[in-house]
From TrEMBL:
Gene3D superfamilies: 1.20.5.170
Protein name as annotated: REPTOR-binding partner-like
Stretches the record annotates as Disordered: 1-44
GO molecular function: DNA binding; DNA-binding transcription factor activity
Keywords of this entry: Activator, DNA-binding, Nucleus, Transcription, Transcription regulation
Bias type Basic and acidic residues, positions: 33-44
CDD domains registered for this protein in UniProt: bZIP_CREBL2
Subcellular location as annotated: Nucleus
The UniProt record lists the keyword Nucleotide-binding: no
Transcription regulation found in the keyword field: yes
Domain BZIP: 42-89
Family designation: Belongs to the bZIP family. ATF subfamily.
The organism of origin for this protein: Musca domestica (House fly)
Length: 117
């Protein structure tokens, strides 16, 4: 191939840096239709509905968490009462007395056999 043949081949190739005017992406300026107003209204209504649903879900989540916290607080109070009872029993056992309810606890746990009458 000589130099002239190479120039013909180069000139026949399309220029890749050029773009067609009709091939642009994105919005076309100045093309607003009356149906866009309807679309905007529908979009706003969907947004409002979504916000209402989000607030309802948030309210339910907070109610669930408040119930969970209340249940845990009740459990903590019950455990503190049990701990206080065991401390009292330990103190009484240290003094050589058998505390009220201690016999029943031992029987329930199976440490002592229940007397058959």
């Amino acid at each position: 191939m000589d130099c002239e043949d190479m120039q013909m081949i180069i000139s026949e190739e399309p220029n890749l840096s050029e773009r067609k005017e009709g091939g642009k992406r994105g919005r076309k300026p100045g093309r607003k239709a009356s149906n866009e107003k309807v679309d905007i209204k529908a979009k706003l209504e969907r947004s409002r509905q979504s916000a209402r649903e989000c607030r309802a879900r948030k309210k339910l989540r907070y109610q669930y968490l408040e119930e969970l916290v209340a249940d845990r607080e009740k459990a903590v109070l019950a455990l503190r009462a049990e701990l206080e009872r065991y401390k009292q029993w330990s103190h009484e056992l240290g003094e050589g007395r058998i505390p009220n309810g201690f016999q029943q606890l031992l029987e329930e746990s199976g440490i002592l056999k229940q007397e058959i009458s």
